Amino acid sequence: MTPLLSLSCRSLLNRRGTVGLTVFAIAVSVMLVLGVERLRHDAKSSFANTISGTDLIVGARSGTIQLLLYSVFRIGNATNNIAWKSYRDIAAQPEIAWTVPLSLGDSHHGFRVMGTTADYFRHYRYGRKQPLRFAAGVAFEDVFDAILGADAAKALGYELGDAIVVSHGLGQTGFARHEDKPFKVVGILAKTGTPVDRTVHVSLAGIEAIHIDWRSGSRVPGMTTDADTVRQMDLQPKAITAFLVGTKSRFAAFRLQRTINEYPREPLLAVLPGVALQELWDLMGTAEAALSAISMFVVAAGLLGMMTMLLSGLNERRREIAILRSVGARPAHVFGMLVLEAAFISLGGALVGLVMLYAGLLVAQPLIDVQYGLFLSIGLPTARDLTLLGVIFFAGVLVGAVPGYRAYRHSLADGMIVRT
Amino acid sequence: MSVHRCLPALSRIAAISFVVLAIGPAPDAFGSERKAHRHGAGTLNLAIEGRNVEAELEAPGADVVGFEHAAASDAEKQAVAKAADQLRAGATLFVFPEAAGCRLIESEVESPLLDEKHHDHKGSDTDAHAEFHAHYHFRCDRPGQLTHLDTTYFETFPAAQALTVRMITAGGQSARQLTPKTARLKF
C-alpha cells in the first residue's frame, strides 16, 4: 500500500499544473455547496429571530406574506393604509393587551423611516423575546425626535443630537425632501441583527407633521408651516400602515384574528407572525431546493472534470503505466494508483474548498451584514457540512474507479501497441 | 477522428439532449403538492396556556359527512347527527399523553348543516362551504408532560385528507400539516 501511496503522490506532483487546476475546480464547488448551505441556515435563523412576542400583525387586506414582509422586514410596500378610526376601534377590544401602530413610506438615505410610538420600544421583541435596548439616548419625546437602528447610525455616521432630513418616498436620493422639518437624533438602538438595525424610527406625529404642507405626494407651493407652529397643531394621523398586537391570552389571538379579518368597516388582514413566517419558508423551500440542487450539480461537474483529467491522462501515461506493469506492478496496482490519485484530488479539493469558504466568509461577513442585514456565522463546520464533505470525497473516489478500471483492463496492451 | 464520423455523433448527442429536456420535470412539479390538498383539508387552531388547552376545529362538510348541502333525507340527517356526536367527543378525537392528565372540560359543535332552519334554502343557500366548527377546552394537571397530541380525526372521518394546524404555545407560534400518515402533533 505504502509504495502505491508514494507512487500516486509523486505522479500527481509530476503533473501539478493540471492536478492543481482540478483540485481548484473541486474546491470551488465544495465552497459553493457549503456556502449555500450556510447561507440557507443563517438566513432562516435570522428571519425566524426577527419577531417574537407579537401575537398578531394587522394591515390592510393583501397577502399574509406581503404584510409580514413590509411590516416586519421592511421589504416591499403596503398596498393600502388602515384608517386611524379602525385602529382605535380594534385596539379597544378587551382581549388586547397592547398595540403598536406603524407608519411606513418615507426614507432617509436608503434606510426606511418608520413612524411609531414609544410603545414600540417597550413591546417589540426579537430572538428569544429580547427587548430593544438603547445603546445611547432615550425614546422620543418631541415630535421631531428620531431614533436610529444600529446599522443606520453606523453607516451614516450619526451621533446623538445630529439633524436628519427625511426623504419622501423610498428613493435613494429623493427629489422630494422634507427639508423644512429636520429630525433630531435622540436615541440609537443596540445591534439586534434584525431589520430594526436598518430603520430610522420617528414618532407618528412626526410623520404627520412633515406631511402637513403636502398633498398627494408633493409639496403644495407657497405653503410652509414652520416646525413650532406644527407642534401646536393636532398631529393625530388619519391613517397608519399596520399595527402590532399583543393579546392577553394565547387563544385570544385566534379569536381576534377572525374578528379583525371580518371587520365590517374596512378590509383588514390579521396574521399570526409565526405562522406567516412558516408560510414564507414553504414558499422559499422551492428556491432553497433549487439552490442546493444547483450547487450539487456544480460538484458533479467538478468531479466529472476530475474524471476527464484522469482519463485523458491515461493516454499520456501509456508508457508510464506500461513500464510499471513491466517491472511487476499488477493490474490491481494500476487500478489502486488511479483511485488513490482521485482520492488525493478530492480530499485536496475538499480541504482547499473549506479554507476558501472560511476566507470568503471572513471577507463577506461584514459586507453582507451592512448591505443586507444578514449576519453570517463563522463557526466550526457543522455535522451536515462534514457529511457533505464526506459524500463529496466518497463520490470522488468512486469517480476515480472509472479511469482505474480502464487502466486495469488496457494497461498492458495500451502501452505496448505502437499507435500511428 | 474525421469530420465525417464526428458529425453524426454530435447530432445524436443533440437529439438525446432534446429528448431529456422534453421529458424532464414539468415546470409545475414543485408546489403542486400544497395546492392538491385544498379539498379535504380542515384546520385546527390550538393554544396551550398554563394548564389550559383550547382547540378549535373547522372541518369541511364534505370531509365529515360527505356532503355540504342541508340534510334532506333521513339518512343524511342521521349522518349529520352522528358526525356532530363524534366531533363533540373531544377526548376521543384528541389524545394527549397519559402523563399530562388532560380531561375535556367543554366542547361544542356548530354547523349550518345542523341548523334545521337551513332546510328552506333560498337558492344560493346551498353554499359549497358548509363546515363543522368545533370548540374544545381541555385542562391538564401536568402541562409539563404535554409533549404531543395524537388525533383520531382521520380514522373517524376517512374522507379527510389533511389538517392544517396553527398553534400557539410557550415556544411561540407555528404551523403544521397533519395527514392520515402523520397524525401526531409534536409540541
Task: Walk me through the structure.
The complex is a heterodimer of chains A (420) and B (187). Chain A is built from 13 helices and 16 strands. Chain B has one domain. In chain B, a hairpin with a 2-residue loop joins strand 7 and strand 8. The longest helix of chain B has 21 residues. The interface between A and B is medium-sized, with 16 and 17 residues.
Number of continuous helical runs of chain A: 13
The number of distinct β-strands of chain A equals 16
Give the ordered list of helices and strands of chain A: HHEHEHEEHEEEEHEEEHEEHEEHEHHHH
On the 0 to 100 scale, the average pLDDT of chain A is 85
Mean pLDDT of chain B, to the nearest integer, reads 77
Distance between the termini of chain B: 66 Å
Strand content of chain B: 25-35%
User: What is the structural class of chain B?
Assistant: alpha+beta
The number of domains of chain B is 1
Please compute the radius of gyration of chain A using only Cα atoms.
Answer: 31 Å
Q: Mind summarizing the main beta sheet of chain B? A: 6 strands, mixed
Helix content of chain A: 40-55%
Coarse morphology of chain A: elongated
> Strands of the biggest beta sheet of chain B: in what spatial order?
4-5-2-1-7-8
Largest sheet of chain A: 10 strands, mixed
Helix run count of chain B: 6
Unreliable stretches of chain A? none
Structural class designation of chain A? alpha+beta
For the CA atoms, what is the radius of gyration of chain B? 25 Å
Task: Report the end-to-end length of chain A measured between terminal Cα atoms.
Answer: 36 Å
